[in-house]
Amino acid sequence: MDWYSVVNDYYKTGYYTIDQVKVFVQKGKITAVQFQEITGQEYTA
Questions:
Q1: Domain boundaries, the chain
Q2: Given its phi and psi angles, is residue 24 left (phi above 0), alpha (psi -120 to 50 degrees) or beta?
Q3: Number of C-beta neighbours around residue 9 at 10 A
Q4: Who's near 24: CB < 8 A, 6+ residues apart?
Q5: Sign of the CA dihedral 15, 13, 29, 23?
């Protein structure tokens, strides 16, 4: 599964919040760099 695309699409449409996107980084599904690309904010744990 392409987690980056799924999370990106869900975030852009408003289904996921920034906090929810952080969980995908914590679970290893996307990287901190991808988090920044999706949200426009730097990842902080």
A1: 3-39
A2: alpha
A3: 13
A4: 3, 7, 30, 35
A5: negative
Q: What are phi and psi of 16, to 5 degrees?
A: -115, 145
Distance CA 41, CA 20 (A): 14
- Listed residue (15, 2, 1, 5) closest to 37, CA to CA: 5
Angle between helices 18-26 and 32-39 (to 10 degrees): 160
Q: Which two tokens stand for residue 5?
A: 């695309």
Q: Residue 27 is encoded by which pair of tokens?
A: 């679970």
Tens of pLDDT, residues 3-42: 999 999 999 999 999 999 999 999 999 999 999 999 999 9
